Amino acid sequence: MKRSILFFTWAILSTSAIYAQIDIKVGPLGLLFNNFNMGVEVGASPNVGIELTGGADWKRLPLVSDNIYKGSALRLGINGRYYFNPTEKKLNGFYAGAYTRFGGGKYSFTNPDTNEKDEFKSTRVAGGFLIGGKIVSKNERIIFDLGIGFGRAFVYKFEDLNGTNEADLTDVPFVNFDLPINLKIGYRIGVDNKK
Predict the structure, then answer these.
(1) Domain extent for 68
(2) pTM for this entry
(3) Helix ranges (DSSP H) in the chain
């Protein structure tokens, strides 16, 4: 995992030296739904952007015997986007692409009668397709990114910390569907203002 992050950082720096554009974005509306997400997108060519996404969520889940487990998870993903008709502002307008997401975290439930703690770790790997649009302000600094995707979870596990007891997720509707919604605002650095 550390090697992947180092490689992607190197790729961002190498690519940004060529295309001189990096979009740093955050999703402020996620805070209303107990999550936070952000992304860094670089241009790999005049029509192709590569985005590294990260985030965290904290939520309550009914896992075993309808007990409410509380916990948090971290997410990391990469998506590629093809911009169909970018203007001179580069990497803007309508796009389509593919995404991957990896998430992992820990959830726990404390029995109020016995005070015993039950803990599960979660692992989720998902991927799919996405579409959306990006608007770039006149000064080419402020960006608005809106997109939606559809995919599925290829791996979705909740198991105890020893890996011996796995929660049964078959009763949870649509558990393997993945529907990422992307609404981010951001700032573009590395813009060449010489027109």
Answers:
(1) 2-189
(2) 0.78
(3) 2-19
